[in-house]
Specification:
By secondary structure, the chain is of the alpha/beta class. It has twelve helices and eight strands.
């Protein structure tokens, strides 16, 4: 297994550590750099066999792969700290939102770079990530990045310009789903259910519906919707209201707005 150093031990970084350990990586092959002392203690308690250090330079010294998992604004300082400790052929995988490949390459020189956009369901091992290669990244580097991020969910490959659309769709997508859940729970309370019952019904409905979508039987969302919609029935009445209130258009506009914002943020990098 490749030796992996994570720069940043926040929620996404710790989720990746847990996924790698569960996927067969040895703790001795993992290290994490975290500048916050309290967070380092928490990481040491959660992953007692993983090396946790305060400096990026200490973490990357013998790493084959470095995963940049700090806040976007902290990327330059973090990689500058790593500096000469990076190996000449070390693969740099960045999950810092909005930080372009060009920016990363400007900080790490001719080393191979892969930029990734994961989403928060990675915290429970059910995320989806998109990866894009940099100037010096080969198919082998993409394979390594896919194995790493595959430890916390599914992985797709795109070109860098598509990452803004990925951000608008799957990166921001969990928030859209959570807003839908909020609205459905409130609706359940409005029609007479207790909040606890409404919450249980909505959460399980969303989970079960996602599982139906994920089945490998080529059932499209349209086909699944049609299967539960009887002519003149209750579901048809509900769907009619959603269509009249512009649900489809609202979702399209939300994804487009998030995509535009991602492009704006990237251009500032």
């Amino acid at each position: 297994m490749a030796r992996v150093a994570l720069l940043g031990g926040g929620k996404m970084g710790s989720a990746l550590i847990g996924g790698l350990l569960a996927g067969g990586w040895e703790a001795d092959d993992l290290s994490v750099a975290e500048i916050d002392g309290e967070r380092r203690i928490a990481l040491e308690q959660e992953f007692p066999k993983v090396r946790v250090v305060p400096s990026a330079a200490w973490a990357v010294a013998d790493a084959d792969v470095v995963v940049v998992a700090v806040k976007p604004g902290d990327v330059p300082a973090t990689l500058e700290t790593a500096g000469a400790a990076l190996g000449e052929s070390t693969l740099v995988v960045s999950i810092a939102a909005g930080v372009t490949i060009a920016t990363i390459e400007g900080l790490v020189g001719d080393r191979p770079v892969v930029r990734a956009m994961p989403n928060t369901p990675a915290l429970v091992g059910a995320g989806v990530s998109a990866i894009a290669p940099g100037t010096h990244a080969t198919a082998e580097h993409l394979d390594i990045a896919e194995r790493l991020l595959g430890a916390v969910g599914r992985v797709v490959r795109v070109t860098e310009p598509a990452l803004d659309a990925v951000t608008g769709l799957s990166g921001s997508g969990p928030a859209y789903v959570f807003l839908l859940a909020e609205a459905m729970i409130e609706a359940g309370v409005f029609v007479g259910l207790t909040r606890d019952i409404a919450t249980e019904l909505v959460v399980q409905t969303l989970l079960g519906s996602a599982m139906l979508l994920a089945r490998d039987d080529d059932a499209s969302p349209e086909a699944l919707r049609a299967a539960v919609t009887s002519p003149g029935g209750t579901t048809a009445a509900g769907l009619r209201e959603l269509e009249q209130h512009g649900m489809r258009a609202a979702i399209l506009d939300a994804v487009a707005a998030a995509t535009r914002r991602s492009r704006e943020l990237g251009s500032r990098g």
